[in-house]
C-alpha cells in the first residue's frame, strides 16, 4: 500500500464549487488535486494537479484516490444508477 501524501485533498468535481474548494485548500496550505472531465472546466483552470477522466473510468479514479488523505465530492449531476 502506498503512503498517503501529507496535506493532500482530492476534489471530485470541476465546477465553480470545486474552484472555490481549491482556493480554500490553497489558503490552508493543503495540496488540492482535482479529478475533472476537461482541462477547460472552471476548477481545472486554476488547479496545479489535475487528473482528466470520467467517474466511470474505475481504474483512473482508483489511481487518483489512492494517495489522498481526504476527498471532497462536488457534483450534482452524477448518475447514481452506476
- Give a short account of the largest sheet: 4 strands, parallel
Structural classification: alpha/beta
Strand content: 15-25%
Count of strand segments? 4
Shape: globular
Question: What does it look like?
Answer:
By secondary structure, the protein is of the alpha/beta class. The chain is built from two helices and four strands, in the order E-H-E-E-H-E. The chain has helices spanning 16-27, 58-65; strands spanning 8-12, 31-36, 50-52, 70-73. The longest helix is centred in the N-terminal third of the chain and has 12 residues, at 16-27. The model has no long low-confidence stretch (mean pLDDT 88).
List keywords for this structure.
82 residues; four-stranded parallel β-sheet; 2 helices; alpha/beta; globular
Summarize the structure.
With 82 residues, the protein is an alpha/beta fold. The protein has helices at residues 16-27, 58-65, and strands at 8-12, 31-36, 50-52, 70-73.
Task: Please specify the SSE layout and strand pairing.
Layout (H helix, E strand, L loop, with lengths): L7 E5 L3 H12 L3 E6 L13 E3 L5 H8 L4 E4 L9
Parallel strand pairs: 1-2, 1-4, 2-3
Amino acid at each position: 500500500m502506498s503512503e498517503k501524501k501529507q496535506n493532500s485533498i482530492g476534489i471530485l468535481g470541476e465546477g465553480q464549487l470545486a474552484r472555490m474548494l481549491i482556493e480554500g485548500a490553497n489558503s490552508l496550505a493543503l495540496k488540492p488535486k482535482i479529478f475533472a472531465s476537461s482541462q477547460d472546466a472552471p476548477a481545472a483552470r486554476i488547479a496545479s494537479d489535475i487528473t482528466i477522466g470520467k467517474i466511470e473510468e474505475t481504474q483512473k479514479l482508483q489511481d487518483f484516490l489512492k494517495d489522498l488523505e481526504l476527498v471532497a465530492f462536488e457534483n450534482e449531476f452524477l448518475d447514481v444508477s452506476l
